Amino acid sequence: MTASVEVFPSARPVPKPASAVGEALSAYCLAGPAAFLLLCLFVLPIGGVLVIAVTDWQFGARTMSFVGTRNFSELFSDKAFRASLANTILYVLMVVPGSVFLGLFIALLIESGKSLRAFYRAIHFIPFMATLAAMAIAWEALLHPTIGLVNQTLSALGLPTANWLRDEKTVLPVLAVIAIWQNLGFAMVLFLAGLKSIPRDLYDAADIDGADSWLDRLRTVTLPMLGPVTMFVVIVVALRAFEAFDTVQILTKGGPGNASEVLLYTLYRESFEYLRTGYGAAVTIVFLTIVIALTLIQARVMDRRVHYS
């Protein structure tokens, strides 16, 4: 008998090196807890909200019925919700530019000075660190129509006064001013960090090219190099503005009428005061959709105008 010779040996899988398997296992072990927490804290709650939004469930009830898109149809036909949505957009359009431009302006002033820089940074950063409820109560005392410091100062100067938190024309701008005052220190600190990271060589090169005035240096060097910081500040401040709730709850409760009602307050009122949890979940879905869409648009549009080096 002749021994058979295997001309074409069968392909056998090449075992992975032990080091590669260990690295993969270590990666899964390190990323696993974070992925599990993301799943539990973000993905599953959003899925739960989506399920509740298509039901008529009321908070505390033991039964619910599927209603499809009825909550969303009722939502967009509700005048109060449309007013809340318009107020939120207007509020964000006031807060974001005010916080960004004033934060940049104060950062430039502090950076151009030679003394008391730490003191000025601390003073402007304190509002961002203050408890929001205590801050709102302090503003309520300042804006009191009769004994408030704001109206007393205006009266002493011979200027007209107003019932700032009870007038439909002034309540939303006043809330926006409070939000700008709170976010100012956050924007300022980030812009100061960005200004510190700009190489001095760029300013020297700008001087050689003829950009010797402060306005030319600001336009050709400072603002382009602050692009990444500006993009981050705009996105974060916009998200904080969309999340406005505490000041509305403490100072106005959405009034007068619906003049200061914003989306998060509408969500809270419908879900926990009126116990219409299915309707409140629909408000949540609309809120999340708007926030995610605007964040992606801001990042995409601003990223094209940003200089990273």
UniProtKB/TrEMBL annotation:
<keyword id="KW-0472">Membrane</keyword>
<feature type="transmembrane region" description="Helical">
    <location>
        <begin position="171"/>
        <end position="193"/>
    </location>
</feature>
<protein>
    <submittedName>
        <fullName>ABC transporter permease</fullName>
    </submittedName>
</protein>
<feature type="transmembrane region" description="Helical">
    <location>
        <begin position="122"/>
        <end position="142"/>
    </location>
</feature>
<dbReference type="InterPro" id="IPR051393">
    <property type="entry name" value="ABC_transporter_permease"/>
</dbReference>
<feature type="domain" description="ABC transmembrane type-1">
    <location>
        <begin position="85"/>
        <end position="298"/>
    </location>
</feature>
<keyword id="KW-0813">Transport</keyword>
<dbReference type="Pfam" id="PF00528">
    <property type="entry name" value="BPD_transp_1"/>
</dbReference>
<feature type="transmembrane region" description="Helical">
    <location>
        <begin position="89"/>
        <end position="110"/>
    </location>
</feature>
<keyword id="KW-1003">Cell membrane</keyword>
<keyword id="KW-0812">Transmembrane</keyword>
<dbReference type="GO" id="GO:0005886">
    <property type="term" value="C:plasma membrane"/>
</dbReference>
<feature type="transmembrane region" description="Helical">
    <location>
        <begin position="34"/>
        <end position="54"/>
    </location>
</feature>
<comment type="similarity">
    <text>Belongs to the binding-protein-dependent transport system permease family.</text>
</comment>
<keyword id="KW-1133">Transmembrane helix</keyword>
<dbReference type="InterPro" id="IPR000515">
    <property type="entry name" value="MetI-like"/>
</dbReference>
<dbReference type="GO" id="GO:0055085">
    <property type="term" value="P:transmembrane transport"/>
</dbReference>
<feature type="transmembrane region" description="Helical">
    <location>
        <begin position="223"/>
        <end position="242"/>
    </location>
</feature>
<dbReference type="InterPro" id="IPR035906">
    <property type="entry name" value="MetI-like_sf"/>
</dbReference>
<feature type="transmembrane region" description="Helical">
    <location>
        <begin position="278"/>
        <end position="297"/>
    </location>
</feature>
